[in-house]
Design a protein that fits this description.
Helices cover 63% and strands 0% of the residues. The chain is mostly helical. The longest helix is centred in the N-terminal third of the chain and has 25 residues. The termini are far apart.
Length: 239
């Protein structure tokens, strides 16, 4: 049975068991609302965005918006959830170094394009003013970083990382570390970023990964080097 087009929007980041992503009228409605929310954020920012604006620009009646999404924060959260319903996969260049460089360059390119940069920046700004938007944004990027796990698995299989176990590396932390310097410059210091900046961030993350920095929480610190381990076992000689 097709999903009721007037049924409440799913909670961001969730899907009812045994169902696929909604299609047909429901999908068209959500897409129209998503586009209107993004347009409103770009034009007015979160403080100036209203349900009336979304209704006017999406063609969806205001009462339907309230019934399905509850309020403005519900609209914004579902917009982020819908943005994550894509087929994006991390780069696969044949090496971890190439994958990280391609990933960071992708971040630069996305914020270098005015069309995508405006909406992305507006959503991030909204997350500072709405806890529900912040939760949805965290879930969105959490899913993005989860999809980066194959990069680490491939690197381990190729022998590019010193760890003998794939699980000894937190793929999410590695991906975050590669992208973090770019977001810092874009949204904190407001400095321009380019391919050189992207390559520097990728190189730093790669060096940290090779040093065993990205161990999962609770896994303990990286093992000591053979030199340090030997030194620790040797009895101290009296002067």
């Amino acid at each position: 049975m097709p999903e009721d087009p007037e049924s409440p929007a799913p909670k961001p980041g969730t899907r009812r068991p045994g169902t696929s992503r909604p299609g047909g009228r429901t999908a068209r409605t959500r897409a129209a609302v998503r586009d209107a929310v993004l347009a409103g954020l770009v034009e007015h920012g979160y403080p100036g965005l209203t349900v009336e604006y979304v209704a006017e620009h999406s063609g969806v009646h205001k009462t339907t918006l309230y019934r399905r999404w509850g309020n403005l924060e519900g609209l914004l959260a579902d917009t982020l959830d819908l943005a994550g319903e894509d087929s994006w996969t991390p780069p696969d260049t044949g090496s971890l170094e190439g994958d990280l460089r391609a990933l960071t360059r992708e971040v630069v390119e996305s914020f270098d394009d005015p069309a995508t940069a405006a909406s992305g920046s507006a959503i991030i700004a909204a997350a500072f003013q709405s806890q529900r938007a912040a939760d949805a944004l965290r879930a969105y990027y959490g899913e993005r970083f989860r999809r980066c796990e194959p990069m680490v698995r491939r690197a381990v299989e190729r022998g590019e990382l010193s760890t003998a176990r794939e699980g000894a590396i937190d793929a999410g932390s590695l991906s975050r570390a590669a992208c973090a310097p770019l977001f810092f410059q874009l949204f904190v210091t407001r400095e321009p970023v380019d391919e050189h900046t992207a390559d520097q961030a990728a190189a730093a993350a790669l060096a940290a990964a090779r040093a065993g920095v990205f161990t999962p929480s609770g896994a303990g610190a990286p093992a000591a080097s053979a030199t340090n381990a030997t030194a620790a076992q040797e009895p101290e000689t009296a002067p």
